[in-house]
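Handout for the seminar on molecular recognition.
Each group receives one record of this type.
Step one: identify the two inputs.
Step two: read the structure output and locate the region that could contact nicotinamide-adenine-dinucleotide.
Step three: write two sentences on what you found, then compare them with the reference statements printed after the record.
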Amino acid sequence: MNEFRHFINGEFLASASGQSFENRDPVDNSLIGPVYEGGEAEVAAAVEAAQLALKGPWGKLGQAQRSALLMKVADRIEARFEDFLTAECRDTGKPRSLASKIDIPRGAANFRAFAEVLANHPNETFRMDTPDGAGALNYGQRSPKGVIAVICPWNLPLLLLTFKVGPALACGNTVVVKPSEETPATATLLGEVMNECGVPPGVFNVVHGLGPGSAGEYLTRHPGINAITFTGETRTGEIIMKAASVGLRNISMECGGKNPALVFADCDLDKAVAGTLRSSFLNTGQVCLCTERVYVQRPIFDEFVARLAEGARALKPGLPADEHTDYGPLISLGHREKVLSYYELARAEGAEVHAGGGVPDMADALREGAWIEPTVWTGLSTDARAVREEIFGPCCHVHPFDEEDEAIALGNDTNYGLAATVWSENAARATRVAEALDVGIAWVNTWFLRDLRTAFGGAKQSGIGREGGIHGLEFYTELKNVCVKL
Ligand code: NAD
């Protein structure tokens, strides 16, 4: 049995209150172990440790030394790859084949990439003229913002956490992380890695807990927090924005999506079907970038739906370690209840179900797990709730279109604006359509292909701000202009 403790000031601690909640394996709902629930005392201790660390040796390190230390962290995650992989798959139930290719390698890459980007980023300088002819020199100086609260979801726990912790630390900040209550394991392991690499105590802190009335809320309200970076549901983002408004703290928000795929008749159909199977069902549909709305040009509509449904039916649920597993369970029975309620709603709203729509028949103890079938619908109207609301499960609705303008309008017919995929072999069309979509990321003939030097974030209700590459600098640093009269 594992017990998950907070990581505060370099030490693994239980809650002062002794209060805990359960971490369960979604594969069979068995108990992994108790997680200590952080309260105001743990949040206060973590924030104080983070503030002190800013004044200690960490605050005195130069950029090159900080970057070197973060490279060491990346190396150490790779050295302990198996520990991270086992922990991540146990918490989430996701296949090892997936986590070993995406989650854990990206956990290490996030430290390496941001350590490199920031070590090599120049600041602006402007030589200006002055009336006396001597001139003045302006230059930008970046300093850390201070203590950053990092609030994370459960779908890609290590990947999303390190996507924020990597740049935050590379910029010289200290962090207090609140991982999702569903996935406490890899954040806790990262605490061990920080100690093993000699990262000073207080630089990286983890407080476990829930959101409202728990560690999440206390952290966002704590006056010692200088900025909040959040990934999760749009609704939660709105609550956190209100908390951040007290004391005018800066925020970065990566929120929900209802992402479209636009499939044109001039696409490579094999690639478009395979790509949409992946974009709708990877990680059991639990990637913020997953496709839940598919728009297909009429001449290929029937064939596309038939092939997508056939592909969805062929996907095999199974244990993380089984190499034949295509998909794992949802994160929890609670989340399955929510997704199944949308399966029911879609039927009630008039959907024709081409694949899935229910719970797969699992053997023995796995019947207790949060399994669900990949599902393909057609026939819903554009105002159906199943087409408008983020479901965050393995399901998509396929809708026909005739003209390019209509496809763009349908793609943009949402309050969200995170990602979109365009499938077309006509480069001019694909580029035109990608440019017309109101999203943070538009992919052409691919999906979830990420270069860490590029901007990441959402338009409309999918988020505020951009992280990734040098874009995180705006959030994780204060830019001061120094003006020197010559
Ligand atoms: P969630 O909003 O329920 O929870 C996210 C985190 O916020 C958790 O750690 C939770 O404990 C915490 N939290 C909840 N209420 C809080 C409060 N009042 N104050 C402070 N913290 C609080 O989201 P989730 O269910 O964990 O994750 C799924 C959602 O995340 C989906 O909407 C998905 O689209 C989104 N997501 C977005 C991105 C992106 O990059 N845009 C990436 C991954 C997931």
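Reference statements: Residues 151-155, 160, 178, 180-181, 210-212, 216-217, 220, 231-233, 236, 239-240, 254-257, 288, 390, 392, 418, 458, 462-463 surround nicotinamide-adenine-dinucleotide (CB under 6 Å). The longest helix spans residues 63-79.
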